[in-house]
Task: structure prediction
Amino acid sequence: MAKKLRNTGHITNKRARYDYQLGDSLIVGMALSGAETKALRLGHGQLRGAYVTDKGGELWLINAQITGSSGVPIDESARTRSRKLLAKRSEIENLLAAKRQGMTIVPLEVLNRGRYIKLKIALGRGKKRYDKRETLKRRQQERDIAREGRI
Result:
């Protein structure tokens, strides 16, 4: 009997909340090979620098890196290949309409809680440099207040 894989891999895009003002999020499926699925379940993936675009009315995840391990070989060329995202036609149309208005579709995290590997995406608008500084300043103030409350 085969040993079941534990869902230990949790892959997030930590820069997304820093670089974008995020709006509504959506969970979509991904078309993956077997080795890619196993590697993502083990947590061997990265969303840094990844983005979602449309080609012919379909959503594609570009530049997401899935690396193999000793038991899960993935070719060098297949690590950053484009992967098709699976969503309902109405959801795709809504996302593409928002993209035409200047929004960006940002991948947030890879979910592997159930049988399938899913990707959480959100609509976002890029932050300016002064917005990023304001965010850092606000976080530091919240940390200082919390620290004073514990003392």
Observations:
- The CA atoms of residues 94 and 100 lie 10 Å apart.
- Residues 129-150 form the longest helix (22 residues).
- Helices lie at 16-19, 34-41, 89-100, 129-150.
- The two ends are 54 Å apart (CA to CA).
